[in-house]
Design a protein that fits this description.
Chain lengths: ~160, ~160, ~160, ~160
């Protein structure tokens, strides 16, 4: 069963190194005090379309106090999944939360994806009110368990 | 969106007035300190079989620290849903949490069902560590939201 | 992939030896000329409730020219799944096609179940317009494949 | 309920005017004698991904005697759904049947899409053994009904 890292042993979530935002521009620093869910995806990844992004959309709709962000962590097929294609994808699939494009620096995996040590897509990340990374998971997360983790993080007090 | 009643305005969950337990006998008093989920059902109720009981089974499996209980609140077709039939049903459907039979006193609705003012089945009830009733819902509860409520209740401190 | 027995090598479907019908009384002899789907079930069998009977209900609704019948082939828990219980079950689960109760003669498996050599429930049987048994399957039948078999049987000419 | 056009009142399926094939090149003329299912889709159309293409994949897998073809009928977002993007899409989503790219002639809708008078995507087309168009449907087709239509078409004799 997926579980939160204990608050005491978590480390600060790395900065989102993003070259372009769709929807409103944002940052983890700005969201300090809120629970944040980040869905790392690629627009032509079947698991992202069939379960990762739909789950992020449900969280976005059901929990107005949780900041949901998409992170487009392209590590293959860059030539056909650039910003113009991503924009169409977000419109067609009705993604209404902010989505940032992870920065490339010449390596296969983009910068933020490496900073979070992600193994692939879709990956789901949870950041607590204090800005610490409490959960990272590649693949499907059962709804009950994601709900329980969000419920627990929302119940934690905001940092002073 | 279903929500918990605030801890401050909740009242104590009524006693489970049960004539017979399947699985181990229990009571809310014994479970004080734990989060409790009660699934009120009837064995020949389609919604109970298709979503209410399966959800209770998932919670039972995923959250070992949550006490899941079934309450057989028969208000129709008593003649074919008595304890012998219920025992077969629980075996066939693999219900491994304790199930109590709500007591009848001659009125249409059984006693505990009336005490909780339930309108039908399946109904899902959540009781906090202090023994207060924090949630009552007739019909389906989305998994994300049930998870969030369980996460929140589990995050509350146990009473002294 | 489940397949129809070729028309040439099929044998006549055994008589339905039924002690009581719910809905209108019927027989395979009366239905000669029509494609018939028989769903053999027990009312407290989880697979029957979760996929066997719902599929039979869909076929009943979608193919007015196919005769859908239920056969209650009880081979365990007779004491709590008698006709009174079955009647409640059929009402509660909205089973609108005729359902016959397979006759018991003291052996574990009832008479018609043995005549069809069924191994358990749910079992799906298809009988062609000439009254021959063309398909017997224990467990889930994919919708596409059931549809294809029904389409093929419906396309066969009625016997003279 | 979706239904086949009667064989007697159907007209010949228009030629597939395709600029490029992925998988093996084919044509309706070559497939005369076989039942053909054509799935008209766009690679960034949510309904195509969630139900249209998966259904075509199931038919392709379950009915080796049915020729399944994809037709990429792009009428919006051409700039990001060209052949290079489509190739990646087909690889990532495991589409193993032949897919042709509908030809554009300057109008909004591509040529084959107009010849078939399609209203949008996903659209499912069925062509009989004689090369006649027997079914056109925009949107989801229930599995049972698609199966029944395929069963009926497969039961028809091949033309002399």
């Amino acid at each position: 069963m997926p579980r939160l890292t204990a608050a005491g042993s978590a480390y600060p979530a790395p900065m989102l190194d993003v070259t372009q935002w769709f929807g409103s521009e944002t940052s983890l620093a700005q969201l300090r005090g809120q629970v944040v869910m980040i869905e790392a995806f690629q627009m032509l990844c079947p698991g992202c379309i069939s379960y990762g992004l739909p789950q992020a959309q449900r969280v976005h709709k059901l929990f107005p106090d949780v900041a949901v962000l998409g992170l487009h962590t392209v590590f293959e097929h860059h030539e056909v999944t650039g910003p113009a294609a991503l924009k169409v994808f977000l419109d067609e699939f009705g993604i209404f939360f902010p989505v940032g494009v992870d920065r490339h620096d010449g390596q296969r995996m983009p910068v933020t994806m490496r900073a979070y040590e992600l193994q692939g897509t879709p990956s789901t990340l949870l950041v607590d009110r204090a800005g610490n990374l409490r959960f990272t998971h590649l693949g499907a997360v059962p709804e009950l368990e994601l709900g329980a983790m969000l419920g627990e993080l929302r119940a934690e007090p905001a940092p002073a």
